[in-house]
């Protein structure tokens, strides 16, 4: 049976707006991020689904909680859905990271899947955790639709995994805050169905005009 996963990136955070690397550190949703989370909640209020899971990091939980308030689901937290741990680079802008940890930042930006950031982890380590989590959730919810709130780096890794894009290949796609991405899990194989849908955010743009 196929399990349909609606994988959502959390709303914009204060650090997203400032261009700071977040990793496992917490940054609260910005005002815009709160509005984005509400737009996701409004869209999901019209779509039946069986369960709501979230990374245990605050920005994801804050987004998931706004969805839960509209849909009535419990938010089930799972640390395997976290962003990649960026160790010594967390909390820094890219410019600051390049100045303070030039060798580490250079290795990080080269994008090799198995490079472990000091005090952090590799992209491949994080991807394996997420895949195991999704496989477990698929077995728990066969034939169902499941909503998961997670992070941009992890979503990027899942897309590369499905489309067999090498981790070190330059990123030629966007990973948008509050983006809606559908991945189907069938017989242990994950397939990307929809990527980067932000149609639910159009009303926000209209409100600002």
From TrEMBL:
GO CC, alphabetical: cytosol
One family name in Pfam for this protein: His_Phos_1
Sequence positions that bind substrate: 9-16, 59
UniProt xrefs under InterPro entries: His_Pase_superF_clade-1 (IPR013078), His_PPase_superfam (IPR029033), PG/BPGM_mutase_AS (IPR001345), Phosphoglycerate_Mutase (IPR051695)
Keywords: Hydrolase
Domain of life where this protein originates: Bacteria
Annotated GO biological process: negative regulation of glycolytic process; regulation of pentose-phosphate shunt
Active site residues of this protein: 10 (tele-phosphohistidine intermediate), 83 (proton donor/acceptor)
Single GO molecular function: fructose-2,6-bisphosphate 2-phosphatase activity
Protein name: Alpha-ribazole-5'-phosphate phosphatase
């Amino acid at each position: 049976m196929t399990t349909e996963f609606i994988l959502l990136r959390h709303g914009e955070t204060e650090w997203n707006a400032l261009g700071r690397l977040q990793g496992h550190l917490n940054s609260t949703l910005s005002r815009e991020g709160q509005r984005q989370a509400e737009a996701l909640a409004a869209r999901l209020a019209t779509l039946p689904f069986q369960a709501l899971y979230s990374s245990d990091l605050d920005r994801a939980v804050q987004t998931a909680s706004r969805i839960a308030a509209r849909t009535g689901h419990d938010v089930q937290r799972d640390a395997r859905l976290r962003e990649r741990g960026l160790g010594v680079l967390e909390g820094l802008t890219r410019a600051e990271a390049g100045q303070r940890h030039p060798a580490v930042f250079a290795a990080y930006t080269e994008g090799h899947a198995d490079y472990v950031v000091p005090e952090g982890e590799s992209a491949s380590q994080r991807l394996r955790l997420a895949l195991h989590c999704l496989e477990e959730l698929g077995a728990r919810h066969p034939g169902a639709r499941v909503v998961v709130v997670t992070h941009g780096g992890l979503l990027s890794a899942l897309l590369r995994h499905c489309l067999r894009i090498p981790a070190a290949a330059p990123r030629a796609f966007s990973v948008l805050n509050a983006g809606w991405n559908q991945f189907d899990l069938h017989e242990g194989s994950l397939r990307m169905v929809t990527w980067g849908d932000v149609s639910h955010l159009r009303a926000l743009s209209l409100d600002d005009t």
